[in-house]
Amino acid sequence: MKNLFPGHFPLSEDELSELMQKAIFVLDTNVLLNMYRYTEPSREHFFEIIERLGNRVSIPYQVASEFFDARTKVIQDQNKAIDLMDKAIEDSHNKLKNELNQFRKHAHVDIAKILGEIGQSFNEAQAEIRRIKESRSPVKVNDDPILHRLAHLLANCILPEPSQEDIEKRKKLAAERIKKNVPPGFADKNKPGDRSHGDVLIWLEIIALSQEKKLPIVFVTDDVKDDWWLRLDGQIIGPLPALRQEFHKCTQQSFHMYQAENFIKHAAELLKIPVDEEALSEAAKVSADQARAWSDTEIALFLEQLTLDDMGNVAEARRSMWDKASPQIDWKNVAGLDSYLKRQKDVDGWRALFSANPRLPLKRVPTESSEPNSRQAVLQQYFLMEDKFVPAGEPKWMVISKEDEDSLLKAQGGIVFIEQLGGFFAFVRSP
């Protein structure tokens, strides 16, 4: 049985050890970009591992292309992150002071004392943030030591650019695979244009590399989507059996995957160098942070592409949720609920999108539009708390076309729900 279905049999410790001795290590785009998110000591530890592995490291051409497409944005985000944290702490402090000052006349509570203690904590937090800012030099896009180091380490590791003919064939194959939900790549089916093909193109390059070198592959990625990983009770336990099965069928070789944290650990053991526990912890944190959040670009693309039909596709408000909903929402104003629920469409793609991003952040978007027939709408997030849905945070403005808004309000009474793990989001008519 194992010789027919090797992908469904986990590798033993001995098999993994042998694999690490022979395999080519392929790094994903997110692993390279995370070099900008690590502290310098952790980054240097990772660089040391790459340097010692030498020609056993390979970078698919698609990975290199995606890296350069995203690099500038990642640098900008990292450079402004400290300032945003500083401002967030200051804003939170001011908001809390304003809230508590309403109770200054309360006879039994010393508000001034409470504010003093709270203020000290906020000041300490801001001092730490500013200390970190002073100790770190911002990376300059045009004078980037991280890029220079990567260029040196990976000088002979980038796979050749496929011919235009091969690219077109692979894109066509990628579209067919995504349509049939063949991993990897189907979790990206809602990305615009060729961006939906990225993971499939990387996968096809990995298979071709193994076929050429006749060697197994260890793919290092911080992508946590379900079209790459097998999960048990929410925990990643290894690559999808379907991936390992396809890989073996195409190459007669073994395939394994590590997130950066485990790659650092096992590669350090292989190279007989000390394992940097701080680097392990930081790699795990960076990976988790990236899994929870969308980039500004992804949020903007998501909002830009929201049409009435898209909203219909993702609106799967089950009856039980409506029953539990917060009394703050006037459900009498929601028109056509029964007919609306009967018109649910396929939501697999959107489910995959949200499950891969379990903490979809809310971002303020421009409230002015060059389109004359556009209006403002509100994006409000809700969470389940004590068996009721309650608003989370302030509503955020977005722009929606007048035509879509009119149709939306007429059909749904002004509210459309998007179920997302333990909470959901609502698009609500502007006042």
Question: Care to describe what's here?
Answer:
- The chain is an alpha/beta fold and 431 residues long.
- The protein has two domains: 6-75 and 140-292, Rossmann fold, CATH 3.40.50.1010; 296-429, no CATH class.
- The chain is 52% helix and 14% strand.
- It has helices at residues 13-22, 29-33, 40-53, 61-101, 111-135, 145-153, 164-179, 198-213, 241-251, 260-271, 277-292, 296-305, 308-314, 319-324, 337-342, 348-355, 402-412; strands spanning 24-27, 57-58, 217-220, 229-232, 235-239, 255-258, 374-385, 388-401, 415-420, 423-429.
- It has a four-stranded parallel beta sheet with strand order 2-1-3-6. It has a four-stranded antiparallel beta sheet with strand order 8-7-10-9. It has a two-stranded antiparallel sheet with strand order 4-5.
- The longest helix has 41 residues, at 61-101.
- The protein is elongated and about 75 Å long.
- It starts with 12 loop residues before the first helix and ends with a strand.
- The relative contact order is 0.11.
- Mean pLDDT is 73; it is low at 293-371, 382-389 and 408-431.
Search tags:
4-stranded antiparallel β-sheet; 14% strand; alpha/beta; PIN domain-containing protein; PIN_8; disordered C terminus; single chain; 17 helices; 2 domains; 431 residues
Question: Which architecture name of the largest domain does CATH use?
Answer: 3-Layer(aba) Sandwich
Distance between the termini: 64 Å
Mean pLDDT: 73
Unreliably modeled segments: 293-371, 382-389, 408-431
What Rg, in angstroms, do the CA atoms define? Answer: 25 Å
Q: How much strand content do the residues show?
A: 5-15%
Summing up helix and strand content along with how strands pair, one would put the structural category as alpha/beta
The H-and-E topology, N to C, reads as HEHHEHHHHHEEEHEHHHHHHHEEHEE
* Strand runs, count: 10
Q: How many separate domains make up the residues?
A: 2
What's the CATH first level of the largest domain?
Answer: Alpha Beta
CATH superfamily of the largest domain: 5'-nuclease
Protein name: PIN domain-containing protein
InterPro entries: PIN_8
Organism: Ralstonia mojiangensis
Domain PIN like: 24-243
